[in-house]
Backbone:
């Protein structure tokens, strides 16, 4: 892969625009529940500051409505955490696209955080007008957001075409190096675990992934869609009924490769305090919510994981945030940690689960990407990476 890196560029006295991935999980009160992505973004910022650059930094957080500022979408909690990590003030700038006083005030050694880039109209559609305006704010554009490299948006793709210089940050470079090395010729069997709640985004990539791996373990809303496809009961659980046909096709094309859960931990409501009941899939009732995989399913999956040569994991297999439904994810996480396989895990909530269970040190490589990580694995060219390659 031929891309320019931040370390290749003399940034002294220059204004450096860093697109980071600071999209951390937060609880209902807005507190950051896992700051891995913020900590992972620090080296790029430090390097640029230490070499005499003025740094403007941005990220998306959640899914704001473009053109609307809402407190819950604000990067304010991230500015506070980043300021602690960097040991210097990190002011947050709102309405920054057209530049102005804040750009003139930004001098070498200073860093500002630019408010949630997905609040800007045109960000998601990769608006060229927006990309040009943002490129005009800086001398050097740095993409250090591997987590959004699979999306062509104005801060991940368009801006790279128009900035005076464009390069990959250290995190992006490290991710591409590590994943590339691990996946070029993986030790077999290659086992992928794809779970969580982003069903439609993840399900659509499973077909090509299924062809590449030796076993595909599904969990969460994705497993529910597969249970449906296999004719089982899922009651009122999270699933994507329109994609049940796609799930059925994957099951038919790859007999035995995708184990479908046979038991589950269910509840009548989506609540921390909900009463949990273990059920075989055939006994799931119309008003049941499947919130975790059951012990028979876990035992079968652990055997597959124990035999793996390479494991890639994205998505918790249950609602691990609630203790009564955390067992499946905990058991799977421990099985991965205990296995001799080279393991790679990615995804915001997946990382939160790994740190909750204290297993971060026992996973081979922790990727900051979820969707990007899966698409890389699928063999797709990531648009943000292609944009950097075009400027090398
Ligand atoms: P990641 O961030 O790792 O890519 P996702 O965002 O796709 O993962 O999904 C994580 C979320 O999925 C977690 O908050 C978890 O509670 C939820 N989840 C897992 N299993 C279920 C389930 N059976 N029903 C509803 N939500 C689930
Ligand atoms: Mg998530």
Residues:
């Amino acid at each position: 892969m031929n891309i320019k890196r931040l370390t290749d560029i003399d940034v002294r006295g220059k204004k450096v625009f860093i697109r980071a991935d600071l999209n951390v999980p937060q609880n209902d009160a807005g507190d950051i529940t896992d700051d891995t992505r913020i900590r992972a973004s620090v080296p790029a910022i430090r390097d640029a500051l230490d070499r005499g650059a003025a740094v403007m930094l941005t990220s998306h957080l959640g899914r704001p409505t473009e053109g609307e500022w809402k407190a819950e979408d604000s990067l304010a909690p991230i500015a506070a955490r980043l300021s602690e990590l960097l040991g210097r003030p990190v002011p947050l700038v709102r309405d920054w696209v057209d530049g102005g006083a804040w750009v003139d005030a930004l001098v070498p050694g200073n860093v500002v955080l630019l408010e949630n880039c997905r609040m800007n109209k045109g960000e998601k559609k990769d608006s060229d007008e927006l990309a040009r305006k943002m490129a005009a704010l800086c001398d050097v554009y740095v993409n250090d957001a591997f987590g959004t490299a699979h999306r062509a948006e104005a801060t991940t793709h368009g801006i790279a075409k128009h900035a005076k210089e464009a390069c990959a940050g250290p995190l992006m470079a490290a991710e591409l190096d590590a994943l590339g090395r691990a996946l070029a010729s993986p030790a077999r069997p290659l086992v992928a675990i794809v779970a969580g709640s982003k069903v439609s985004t993840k399900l659509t990539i499973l077909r090509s992934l299924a062809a590449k791996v030796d076993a595909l373990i599904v969990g969460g809303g994705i497993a529910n869609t597969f249970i449906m496809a296999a004719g089982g009961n899922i009651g009122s659980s999270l699933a994507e009924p329109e994609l049940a046909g796609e799930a059925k096709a994957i099951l038919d094309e790859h007999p035995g490769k995708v184990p479908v859960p046979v038991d589950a931990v269910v509840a009548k409501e989506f609540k921390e305090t909900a009463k949990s009941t273990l059920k075989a899939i055939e006994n799931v009732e119309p008003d049941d919510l499947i919130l975790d995989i059951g012990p028979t399913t876990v035992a079968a999956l652990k055997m597959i994981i124990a035999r793996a040569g390479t494991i890639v994991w994205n998505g918790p297999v249950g609602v691990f945030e609630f203790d009564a439904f955390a067992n499946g994810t905990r058991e799977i996480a421990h099985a991965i940690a205990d296995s001799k396989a080279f393991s790679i895990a990615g995804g915001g909530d997946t990382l939160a689960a790994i740190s909750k269970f204290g297993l971060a040190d026992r996973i081979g490589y922790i990727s900051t990407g979820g969707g990007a990580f899966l698409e890389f694995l699928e063999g797709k060219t990531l648009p943000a990476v292609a944009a950097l390659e075009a400027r090398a």
The pocket of magnesium ion (ligand 2) is lined by residues 347-349 (CB under 6 Å). The mean pLDDT is 95. The domain at 188-340 is CATH 3.40.50.1260 (Rossmann fold). The CA atoms of residues 15 and 139 lie 5 Å apart.
